[in-house]
Amino acid sequence: MFNTGKELLKIANEKGLKLWEIVLENEAQVSEIDKKELRNKMKENLVVMKEASTRSLENDIKSISGLIGGDAKKVENYRKNKKTLCGDVINKAMARALSCSEVNAAMGKIVAAPTAGSCGIIPSVIFTAAEILNANEEDIINALFTAAGIGQIIAKNATISGAEGGCQAECGAASAMAAAAVVEMAGGTPEMSLHAAAIAIKNILGLVCDPIAGLVEVPCALRNASGATNALISADLALAGVKSIIPFDEVVEAMYNVGRALPVELRETALGGLAATPTGKKLMKEILK
Amino acid sequence: MKNYSTFDILGPIMIGPSSSHTAGAARLGKVAMEIAGNDFEAVTFYLHGSFAKTYKGHGTDRALVAGILGMEPYDERLKNSLNIAKEKGIKIKFVETDLGYEHPNTVKIVFYMKDGKKVNVTGSSIGGGSIVITNINGYNVEFSGMYPTLIIKHIDKKGIISKVTTVLAKHDINIATMKVNRKIKGKEASMIIETDHEINSTVIEELQNIKEITNAKAINPTTKRC
């Protein structure tokens, strides 16, 4: 059993195990379900993630309120037809993350990862990295277990709820989980995975949750796109050998403390931030009338 | 510190956009329907707090109706549930209200049964798709719908609990939690028992045969992913 990043690393180093192996072993013990069945269960997640991350690349879908929809397709077309500034990888990742968020906002099927509001980051980052690394389905399932393990630690020691900790808790957790998972997929050490996770949270520490009209649409979808990017650059930094001076567990604690210090207006209540701008308030009036 | 399963973190698989306002709402509807039975002709939803304010934008209305039609939170028909209910001739009504000191995501669901009876179920969506049922027909209860749950109405008399537990033990059913409540001493009382094992119809029949028991019902959750 592991409660912290430090404990996870200790097990990894003592037993020479990958993070996914530790997470899977632990889940098998706690749930009393055998590993093969757990992998199958994770594959169900993978199938839904795959569908959600591709569905709105080609289809125009609109959210219930009508606020969002169509951006994933725009980014995908831009990537295919224009010379982009950030290149194929980043643009593909952003399009996939937007696709998941748009499917979610249009009442389509998604996997909360770790929440519905942040459901685009992990699928987008893991599928995009898997293409670059020629990873197969088993590798992707492994990555999902690594991601889940990092999420377990964050949920246990801090929070993954926007109402409690702001967007840094939801999209921050998702970025950290994704970053750690793809570092391992790329052959990085367990230490590197935790550095990547720490860097990803640090990059958006303090980000508030301020959705227009309280709906999981604006700015959530765009924050999934930037969250995916954040995860990929954090993974690259860690794989290059860059370390987080503040260790992962302390970053998680800082995130929790910052979240608790956020006023209630900035924690999913639609009373502050973008939701409280003149345009935000006007849209809210129109949508909720 | 709470422990989370890997599938609490990556999951549930659900229809968007919100685990509390959509997935949790669908589960509330479904558990309420299992309590009421599906012989209803009209259903009114009294929405409280955040449910009342944002139910349209979050699809809470469609999710609740999907639930009472027996759909799971991952059922893609959820989006069209209002039309499906219409086709089935079920009258649906939403009322924004203040239920008093309740969790912000609370709904009181009133089923109008074909036999003229009414069934009231109140519950809250408490985050991540988890729910708690707090009241059934005026009885305060507290259960999550995550476990097989026995809902028993009985006469408030000595020895009923032991009769019930004897039946459960005989069928090798382990009790996880148990709550007993009564309205008036010596009159009607209720028992809510969450178990680790499925409760089949034989168990229900044997419980119905206990003469002090006026009604016994089992809810066996099919959603294991929420």
From TrEMBL, chain A:
List the keywords (alphabetical): 4Fe-4S, Gluconeogenesis, Iron, Iron-sulfur, Lyase, Metal-binding
A Pfam family annotated for this UniProt entry? SDH_alpha
Cofactors (names): [4Fe-4S] cluster
Which top-rank group of organisms is this from? Bacteria
Molecular function GO labels: 4 iron, 4 sulfur cluster binding; L-serine ammonia-lyase activity; metal ion binding
Kindly tell me the pathway this chain contributes to.
Carbohydrate biosynthesis; gluconeogenesis
The alphabetized list of GO BP terms reads: gluconeogenesis
Q: What is its EC number?
A: 4.3.1.17
**Segments forming domain Serine dehydratase-like alpha subunit:** 14-275
Catalysis performed (reactions): L-serine = pyruvate + NH4(+)
PANTHER family per UniProt: L-SERINE DEHYDRATASE, L-SERINE DEHYDRATASE 1
Could you say which protein family the record assigns here? Answer: Belongs to the iron-sulfur dependent L-serine dehydratase family.
Name assigned to this protein: L-serine dehydratase
Read off the lineage from the record: Bacteria, Bacillati, Bacillota, Tissierellia, Tissierellales
From TrEMBL, chain B:
Q: What is catalyzed by this enzyme?
A: L-serine = pyruvate + NH4(+)
- Record's InterPro entries? ACT-like_dom_sf, ACT_dom, ASB_dom_sf, Fe-S_L-Ser, Fe-S_L-Ser_bsu, Ser_deHydtase_bsu
- Family annotation (Pfam families): ACT, SDH_beta
Specify whether Metal-binding is a keyword of the entry.
yes
Q: Which GO terms describe its molecular function?
A: 4 iron, 4 sulfur cluster binding; L-serine ammonia-lyase activity; metal ion binding
Gene Ontology biological process: gluconeogenesis
Q: Which residues form the ACT domain?
A: 149-221
Q: Which cofactors are reported in the record for this sequence?
A: [4Fe-4S] cluster
For this protein, the record's CDD domains field holds: ACT_LSD
Q: Which Gene3D superfamilies match?
A: 3.30.70.260, D-3-phosphoglycerate dehydrogenase, domain 3
Please name the pathway.
Answer: Carbohydrate biosynthesis; gluconeogenesis
State the signal peptide span.
none
What keywords does the record list, in alphabetical order? 4Fe-4S, Gluconeogenesis, Iron, Iron-sulfur, Lyase, Metal-binding
Record bears the keyword Iron: yes
The family line of this record is: Belongs to the iron-sulfur dependent L-serine dehydratase family.
The name of this protein is L-serine deaminase
Organism from which the protein derives: Caloranaerobacter azorensis H53214
